[in-house]
Each structure stands twice: as C-alpha cells, then as structure tokens.
Design brief:
The chain has four helices and nine strands; from the N terminus they run E-H-E-H-E-H-E-E-H-E-E-E-E. The chain is of the alpha/beta class and 176 residues long. The protein has a single domain, classed as Rossmann fold. The protein has a six-stranded mixed sheet. Strands 1-9-8 form a three-stranded antiparallel sheet. Strand 2, helix 2 and strand 3 form a beta-alpha-beta unit. Helix 1 crosses helix 2. The mean pLDDT is 94. Bound molecules: 1-O-pyrophosphono-5-O-phosphono-alpha-D-ribofuranose. 1-O-pyrophosphono-5-O-phosphono-alpha-D-ribofuranose binds next to strand 2, strand 5 and helix 4.
C-alpha cells in the first residue's frame, strides 16, 4: 500500500502572507466606499478567510457555505449539493466568494450560478490557489493568490482525507 508524505514546501507562510497583504490592498481599493460580504466555502478556505479579512480595510461581514459533490460520478457532471447554506440574504449586497483552490472549476461554476440567481449587487471570486491546467469549465477568479502546477497540495487549510489542514505552509504531498 502506498503511503503519503509531505514531499516539499511549495509556498512558505511568509510568501502566503505577503501575497494576502497585496490581495487585501487590491480588494480594499476596488471596494472603496462599499460594504462587502465575504462568502467562505468550507472547509479549506477558513484559514485564508481569517488572514484575508484582516487585510481588507472596507467594512466586511462573513458568512459560510458548505458544498459537496454527489460522489465520484459528479466530478464530471458538476452537480453540487449544498450542505450548509448562507445565513443571510445576499440580495443587493456586494459579495466576494472566498475559495482556497480552483481545480476543475465545477464547484465555483455551480456556486456562481446559484448565488447570482439571488440577485446580489455584485459577485466576484477570490482564490488563494488556482490550477488552470485542471480546468473543465470556463471560470476565472477575479483575484488569485498563486497559480500552481498540477500537484496535490496540502496545508494552510487544504487537506488530504481531512489531514494536514493545520500545516502553516502549502506543501506538495508525495507518495512512496
Ligand atoms: C476543494 C476546494 C474547492 C473545490 C475545488 O474543496 O475548497 O471548493 O475543492 O475543486 P473543483 O474546482 O474541482 O470543483 P473540497 O471538496 O476538497 O472540500 P474542503 O474544502 O472541505 O476540503
């Protein structure tokens, strides 16, 4: 049986914080004079949300959604199930979806359509990581921390089988 191990650090905690400071400044400039609702997609994005929101200078509120795919077959069908919906209405509000990683893009495609149907004033996407090589549907984040190669990454909120989320750096998971 193969075993997973942390092969190398891809992004250090310092690199991550530096980029988040830049993202926060950009977002603050773009939303100047407006209130913003940050919509965090559980669970991987919680650490990114916590760091990002403290770098945004306009007033922010936060809310959470949990979604899951309908098993293996759905990876390609893009059918996503809402496990936890938002607590608040987003009608006429400026909303920013906060994701940790975009892979196939299916989760965000679904979320974008679902949230847009609720008539927000605006809806944008910020992701810490983007794997453009893996994309199956057309979706592009409005703000992106880092584009990364197609490697399995863990840490800074990202998991493998619910483990490794607490690693401070983003690491590549290897197999031996
Ligand atoms: C990850 C990530 C995105 C989704 C991206 O979540 O947080 O929500 O996968 O993949 P996609 O672009 O192929 O749709 P995951 O299902 O691993 O849940 P987690 O955040 O709770 O770990």
């Amino acid at each position: 049986m193969s075993q997973k191990y942390v092969e190398k650090v891809l992004l250090t905690r310092e690199e991550i914080q530096k980029r988040i400071t830049e993202l926060g400044a950009e977002i603050s400039r773009d939303y100047a004079g407006q209130d913003l609702l940050l919509i965090c997609v559980l669970k991987g994005a919680v650490i990114f949300l916590a760091d990002l929101m403290r770098q945004i200078s306009v007033p922010v509120e936060i809310d959470f959604m949990a979604v899951s795919s309908y098993g293996a077959a759905t990876v390609s069908s893009g059918v996503v199930r809402i496990l936890k919906d938002l607590d608040v209405s987003i009608e006429n509000r400026h909303c920013l979806i906060v994701e940790d990683i975009i892979d196939t893009g299916l989760t965000l495609k679904y979320l974008e359509e679902n949230l847009n149907s609720r008539q927000p004033a605006s809806l944008k996407i910020v992701t810490l990581l983007d794997k453009p090589e893996r994309r199956q549907v057309e979706i592009a984040p409005d703000y992106c921390g880092f584009q990364i190669p197609d490697e399995f990454v863990v840490g800074y909120g990202l998991d493998f089988d619910e483990k490794y989320r607490s690693l401070p750096d983003i690491c590549v998971l290897g197999e031996k």
